[in-house]
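Table S5 (text form). Sequence records supplied for joint modeling of the two-component complex.
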Amino acid sequence: MTGAATPRRWFRVSLWLHRWTGLVATPFFLLLCITGSILIFHLEVDRLLGDFPAESAAAGPPMAPAALAAAAMAAARPGETVQSLAFSSALPDKAFAGFALPGSHALEAERLVLLDRATGQVLPFADPETSFTGFLFDLHANWFLDVPGEIFGGVIALLVLVAVVTGIIVHAPFLRGLAFGSIRHGHSERRRQRDLHNFIGAIVTGWLIVVCLTGLALGLGSLALARWQDTELRAMAGSPTQAPVPVAARVSVDVALATAQAAQPDRDAQFIIWPGTDFSSPRHYAFLMYGRQPYNERLFDIVLVDAATGKLAAARPLPTYLQAVVLSGPLHFGDYGGLPLKLLWLASAWGALFITANGAWLWWAKRRRAPEAAPQPLAAE
Amino acid sequence: MTPLNRLLLMTVATIAGLIGLMVLAGPARLPFALLAATPFAVGIVAWTRQRRR
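The corresponding structure-token record, covering 434 residues in total, follows.
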């Protein structure tokens, strides 16, 4: 192979990859862009549709977990018990209580109830399984197929990532000699559309790389979580054959929380999980302790507290692969910088929507016309 | 600066801005938000200059 032939071959391989990964991903990615555009504003949409209560000033200091769990029982169905409590720094006046039937271990299957954190009052809240944004989220995140759907979404993210990287290789040479942002009018419609494809593509390339990489990580998130549950969580909890602690013999969740807080004084418990779930163990409470600093407010350590004695059993940070998954969430949904970042995300999603649709059109328009020579990288038209 | 270098610079600026905003910025988010928005600002300026021509 000669020195001149190598870049040419590289260009042709990139062109083929850009075209076909882009075309295969197009219908799925269009749907992801549309649903993602709405999900960026999911809280606002939920409030507009009455699926989530409006923001309100906190009615007082937050209740302790045991009292909050007792208050949540007002909304329990026969046989249900509180299995988890979740707080969020974004909604400091609210708490989510998760209910489960006896014998149910899967945290994902629990029924959520929204509470006022200061009064324990149960608030109106649409089940995410049935709300409009919940429907869109299931479509966006797993195509209604649970884990296989999440992996499929990861594959789509990978295809788009390949299309973006090869797009840089394919389109950059065509811009040589053109001022940035040039849209040539007075020529063919195809040329104008290609200029638009290059122009908007250049603007959203960085965003697309971030969203695709994080989408890929999130697509593999359930597998990573299952691996962590099977390995590290089991190792933290000790022998899997240990007897469960009867409910009556358990220390109060408030006592267990005090132990966890003493072990991690610079962190806050934002997720409390009772013993007997797939995120705790038959004899341990689990606490997800979130950092208070900007660099760790999205990351958490796991603390297990013995439900029989109230003593600390184990405390560990997340493994790196799960930290990557956790940090991918905000970077994918753009919900960490207030309204300006959400608007930036929306503009980027629409830009990506445009170049995806117009890229498919460019391919179709070329096929429809009389066959023409393959594009040459150095011919700037 | 060649188009490819400009494209790569904009791409890196966007990624750095988006990650920096989340991991480092905290309350002082403006500089990172500006970094993340740079490609859009450059695009808008290029677009308006080109339209004027």
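Note: The mean pLDDT of chain B is 83.
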